[in-house]
Write a structure and sequence with these properties.
Rossmann fold; 3 domains; 471 residues; seven-stranded parallel β-sheet; alpha/beta
Amino acid sequence: MSKFQLRPYQAQMVSEILGSLAQHDSVVGQLPTGGGKTIILSAIANEFIKRGSPVLLLSHRDELVNQGADKLAAVSGQPVGIIKAGYPDNGDRLIQSASVQSLVRRLHKYSPDRFGAIIVDECHHTTANTYRKILDHFEKAYVLGFTATPCRGDGAGLDDLFSHMVTGPTIKQLIEVGHLSRYRYLAAEKSMVVKGAKVRRGDYTSKSLAALNPRDQLAADLVSSYFQHCDGMRCLVFAIDRDYSKATAAMYQAHGVPAIHLDGETPQHIRKAALEAFQAGEIKVVCNVGLFTEGTDLPAVEALQMARPTKSLGLFQQMTGRVLRVAPGKSEAIIIDHAGNWEMHGLPCDDRQWTLEGVAKPKRAKRLVKKPDGEIVEWELVEVIQTNVTTREIIPGTVAIAPDVDGFWKARLDEILAERETMDYQKGWVGYRLGELSPPLEVWKVAAIALGYKPGWAWYQWQKYRGQDVA
């Protein structure tokens, strides 16, 4: 560990995790993207190696397998075997970095007591059957998971897989001490359409999103906001599918901006060359589909465009985390949200309490302050602006997140909204029907978002109908 100096919070996490593993056989560590989880897990692996206990690092993508192997070798000073297609079998090495897909096909080659500890990178994927099969095979090993977002796509936690959690500092705390980049968050005035999109496994389907959002117009909007807010910066674009990503890259190229599309099917050597050109500034825009949501270290990213709506808080945090890494000459990052994700999830630096059951719900809503000029503010880190083309900046703390509405009120609201759509009634009809029930303010807020109204509509309707017997 002589080459690497752990930051104080990293050293504390290492100590807490090792202490927890003395009492629990499965522990998950949570740290925001860019906080240095790889060096933490490498330091922990090094402690097991010192005791002569072999370590297995599990990753779900090729880049992460090699990236983890390099860091483990650098920290421990030990050669690392790679279990992946196309690599020689160095099964005698104490540390192995494995592709989940490759290892699950080779389990018969390894005895159940082969490893003393298994470290799972991006462990929110451990719900997949392949992970479970591997962990069940090495059932006597200690299991340490690591992720920035310890929840499934539908928001459920990982309490069925891990028995204890150790959390690190928050995004806001890491920004304040300079370990993550400050940022400006801008949102398109006209967000992508999600109303009517189908949901599968807790998130919007790409096919239904594509049917609701004209491809070429969206690509043109992305190029427009790039020129307006981050012209010349190295920008990462998240698209809803391969077709939209390719169209966006083509639109950038047509406007004279060097751009490329990458996805999971892009050959490895092309990906590598493209990212090297991106790092050097020869390529300005990389459009991708699900390729850079996790793990990949891209400090060169200066700007981020989200053209991928998501109901998943985890995916939102993973996407925005790509641009928050610090880098020489990078004073702040630019995030441009064309998907309206901020309306559902808030902002990257919002305070969130991660638990094994998922994200704990806040006890009360944020306290907001209205400035004389009408801007809503709470925290000064991000400055609000109004632009005259396509975007407006969103300040942390000013986001009106749709409250959770369950049980009776969710059922009633869903019925009313479904009836309105079936009968093709005007929006005002929903207000009258809801008024008959005199629901709480939270229900009006959800209705306002569903109908595309401003938050003030919810307050007005609640004041108008509360306590009244309209029927």
